[in-house]
Batch of 3 targets.
Target 1
Amino acid sequence: MGKVTVTLHGAFSEFAGGARSATVEATDIASALAGLVARYPSLAERLRDEHGRMREHVNIFANEEEMRYLDGERTALRDGDIVHIVPAVSGGEV
């Protein structure tokens, strides 16, 4: 298990008491998120729905790659990796 930095972007920081990042022990994205939620329980319902599935409006990156294009929550992480949690951006006029 390696130490991974989880960076919280946008409103996710507010639900973590203003923290912009946290270091957690993790082997994959799922365990990184579990470690983050253990530290900041108010993030749980912001990241997952009532069935335990990731919410669609949450974008998660392993380093610079979006997890949906990798191996999802099973995407392996190594010591020193960075996980970014970014709220989806939508709306506006063209």
Target 2
Amino acid sequence: MLYHLLVPLAPTHQVFNVFRYISFRTAWAMVTALAICYALYPPFIRWMRARKVEQIIREDGPQSHVETKVGTPTMGGLPMLVAITLSTLLWARLDQAEVWMALAVLLGYGAIGLVDDWKKVMLRSPAGLAGRWKLVGQFGIALAVLGAGYLAGEIDPALSLPFFKHATLHFDTALAGLPQLGWLYVLFGAFVLAGTSNAVNLTDGLDGLAIGPVMTSALTYGILAYIAGNTVLSGYLGLPYVAGAGELTVFAVTLVGAGLGFLWYNTFPAQIFMGDVGSLSLGGALGVLAVLTKHEILLVLVGGIFVLEAVSVILQVASFKLTGRRVFAMAPIHHHYEKKGWSEPKIIVRFWIISILLALVALSTLKVR
């Protein structure tokens, strides 16, 4: 918004020229998101406590959770969504379709999470919204947003391959008797969004555990978005150029600012949990960043912690159904380490360290081509 209001004044008032630069607007978008969170969380936490909108703890979870986390307010993702949305609208260029697509996924997935959280609180049950309805909503929103982008020509149906310069797998070749194959990429993108959303949701089990890797991944994709939207940098590094992707830098870094604001109150011992309204929306946001910047496969490395958590659940369920034995003491894997006697802060910080290392490795691949 500020770009459209103030840049036209730059020819006569040069001070407004700084609003042309993505780097300037990104920095202040992060500060704005952080400030909004700091302002919203104290009254939000008091309001939720007064109404006993509390996290419902699984009875089969670690005993320490039953003893220490009961009574902690949930739905802490709501102030983050407000902060991310307002900061993005304030500092990003609103004439770029990518910005609106990212916000649509963030808020759409947030709505699914809100319904899930609300059912848990109202029914006093950890079950919440049925898994099949979550998936229907996640895939429905992803297909609608990505499909609209594809039809409008805003999404290139090509899969970028890491480690190789200008290497892409195209989905837009029509075969005899078959519809345009570009829709296969839209379906693939929907899997990325839904998968990332649910993986972040599985990771959100300890105080501050999920938000750390979310911020690391978001910052990484902010850098990738800036490169993808810059013809010089993308050309030099042999990456696909995506017109308009640079503005996603603003959106990505607002996730970091809002995450820092949330972490102030979510750090161990947490004063509030993000709930599914936070984890599903933030995961969806990371997924749409990966798709829109053409770094879909790299998300496996950038979000390696989320992949690890999701794979641990898949292995646990598959092993128990096939052999009757469990691979881990408890899944997701962060609970396994709790059962092994690791303290909660130790698990959280070590997972953060791994997430940072994975992000650095992912960024290093930009030159290994």
Target 3
Amino acid sequence: MVDKVFCQSCGIPIQESEGLFGTNADGSKNEDYCIYCFKDGAFTADITMNEMIEFCVPHMVKNNKDMTEEKARQMMQEYFPKLKRWKSV
């Protein structure tokens, strides 16, 4: 069984088979970030961690039955500071 890899910016699970890895400036695969957060060697949005959380809340609620906005926000506020992109913030 393969360990799940999570985007180090937004936290979504990324798998090579789904083509969700971002790309480096040279076009190679970036294994830290997803295609939504990182493309051609740069982040796709210049936002803060809190802005990223607010962007992700509706997606988390939509994709997880019985998830409230408040619970999603709380979970991300605890998890995101551990992600590579936000550790130094």
